[in-house]
Amino acid sequence: MSVPEWQTPPCVVPNCIKTATANKTGLEQKLFEFDFTTTNQGPIFYITNKPSWLNMDSINTKIYGMPTSAGTFSNIKISIYDGTNTEEIGPFDLTITGDPFAKEAWHLNNTGQKSYSSGAGIADEDINILDALALGYTGLGVRVAVSDTGVEIAHEDLTDNILSGESRDYRLPVSPWLGDPTPTDPAEGHGTSVAGLIAAKGWNSKGSRGVAPNAQFASFYFLDPSITFATYIDQASGNFDIFNYSYGLHQCTIVPIDDLYLAQLKYGVENYRGGKGAIYIKAAGNNYIDNILYSDCTPNPSVCTYPYYFGNANFDGDNTSPYIITVGATNASGTITSYSTPGSNIWVSAPGGEYGIKSPAMITTDMSGCDMGLSVSANKSNSFESGSSPNSGCNYTSTMNGTSSATPVTSGVAALILEANNLLSWRDVKHILASSAKIIDPSSGNTNHPSGFNLSGYTYQQGWVTNAAGYKFHNKYGFGRVDAGAAVTM
Predict the structure, then answer these.
(1) Surface-to-core class of residue 362, CB atoms within 10 Å of its CB (0-12 exposed, 13-18 middle, 19+ buried)
(2) Alpha-carbon span 275 to 480, nearest angstrom
(3) Which residues does the annotation mark as catalytic?
(4) What is the pLDDT, as a whole number, of residue 331?
(5) CB 414 within 8 A of CB 240
(6) pLDDT of residue 37
(7) Closest CA to 344 of 258, 427, 467, 429
(8) What is the pLDDT of residue 2?
(9) Between the chain's N and C termini, which has fewer beta carbons within 10 Å?
(10) CATH of the domain spanning 102-487
């Protein structure tokens, strides 16, 4: 007669060991587990010399935990006592592979770190990536187009995720514009930083980590004076799941969306991804409070400015298309950034960071070398940007910010959603982003005009409202801040 599992006799030392003293490996911020005995019942277990994040499950006879940092933890021992004798497993080493700057990437996992600025964020004000990683989602199999200032495709933390031969260089004279999108101008590091926020390779002991570190991407060198209307249309086309647009217009006058461009977006959502539709994600803009020259708004230059202009994301017509997901930016304290442009067209918000001096900006890739990218223009009061340790090669930056940063964070979350279910339509993804978004800054109420130009009986900017479908909405945050863990489980 078989013995019920709950009556299984306890193991007796020295016959309890399932695995000998082999060294173990794991990945930073991904669940580590190790079973070490032959039975679910039995003696008493102890573990010594363990890292603080490692836990013991005596009932199921395993050790487990979420590694918070990379490194090798040595001389770990597990002692097993059966009431009479003691047996010991070990010593063994546990080696955790990670990314050296990921611990400062507050948008992934906010522990209240300073991220090389002088001020700290607030713990848990992040995109909840750990819950998505615990389920194994890393963006594998998802294809992203990054239309920007080009990308340094040979960058050490990006090259493994480049879609070979699929990047475009719109500086070339004729279609199909296939070519190397690597910028040559030292000031054009923007696209390299954007790409890193989406898909910087994970667990390679380099840099930080993208939101979707196993997604693949192509770079479009698009933001250049030589662009034409043909390239404007072309950069919304192709065999990609997600298109990332971290750019926009000055928002001081209404610029309608072009009908042909709108038609291309419509074609993309109806035909790409086998008819399920491409996902187009775009920056809301950085004109919340701005000094705008008349010459930015009219063809007649003037020295006069509009002080403290209150931008509106609807003024950029591309942002108003139903086929585009428009993204606002939040900071490491869980509120709107100082620059993010509000509007009724904001779909969701995501971490974009401040300026990396008094409070955290974003940790991401920069053009390699201290004479390229943000390292050239960044405020050197932030030592991370000045070529000193731990960023002696200036291959990374801690000063990237803007809705330009919030957009690729959202693109990364969209990649995780598509990995979780690649049968979703573009409307499904848009709905999931809204439905899973987290309501933040709940006390944010009505806003007056920043220069006091209020109209009697008129609310300049509303706070959180509940719409007819029962969803909470805010012109600053859209339906809330993206939540990767919640999104992949819907």
Answers:
(1) buried
(2) 28
(3) 148, 190, 404
(4) 99
(5) no
(6) 62
(7) 467
(8) 37
(9) N
(10) 3.40.50.200
> Rounded to an integer, what distance in angstroms lies between the CA atom of residue 212 and that of residue 224?
27
Q: Let me know how long the chain is.
A: 490
Please give the torsion angle defined by the CA atoms of residues 11, 14, 19 and 24, in that order, rounded to the nearest 10 degrees: 120
Contact criterion met (CB below 8 Å) for 344 and 312:
no
Is the sign of the CA dihedral 374, 327, 68, 116 positive or negative?
positive
pLDDT tens digits, 78-134: 887 777 777 777 788 999 999 999 999 999 999 999 999 999 999 999 999 999 999
Ramachandran quadrant class, 438 (left: phi over 0; alpha: psi -120 to 50; beta: rest): beta
The DSSP H or E segment spanning 485 is helix 484-487
CA dist 345 and 347 (Å) reads: 6
Q: What is the pLDDT, as a whole number, of residue 11?
A: 57
360: preceding bond cis by omega (within 30 degrees): no
* pTM: predicted TM-score of the whole model, two decimal places: 0.91
- Nearest to residue 56, comparing CAs of 86, 95, 89, 10? 89
Helix, strand, or coil (residue 297): helix
Q: How many helices (H) and strands (E) would you count in the chain?
A: 9, 20
User: What confidence score (pLDDT) does residue 286 get?
Assistant: 93
Per-residue pLDDT for 390 more than 80?
yes
Q: Kindly state the average pLDDT of the residues 163-175.
A: 96
Q: What is the domain partition of the chain in residue ranges?
A: 5-97, 102-487
- At 91 the three-state DSSP class reads strand
Phi-psi region of 105 (alpha: psi -120 to 50; beta: other; left: phi over 0): beta
pLDDT tens per residue, range 335-352: 999 999 999 999 999 999
Measured between alpha carbons, how far is 281 from 163 in angstroms, rounded to an integer?
A: 19
Q: Which two tokens stand for residue 48?
A: 């010594």
Which residue is associated with the tokens 């009061």?
381
- Homologous superfamily assigned to 5-97: Immunoglobulins (2.60.40.10)
| Contact (Cβ atoms closer than 8 angstroms) between residue 147 and residue 158 | no
The residue among 444, 483, 481, 489 whose CA lies nearest residue 465 is 444
At 255, list the tokens.
């610029």
Q: Measuring CA to CA, which residue among 232, 236, 229 is closest to residue 268?
A: 236
487 pLDDT above the threshold of 50: yes
Nearest-CA neighbor of 402 among 358, 450, 354?
354
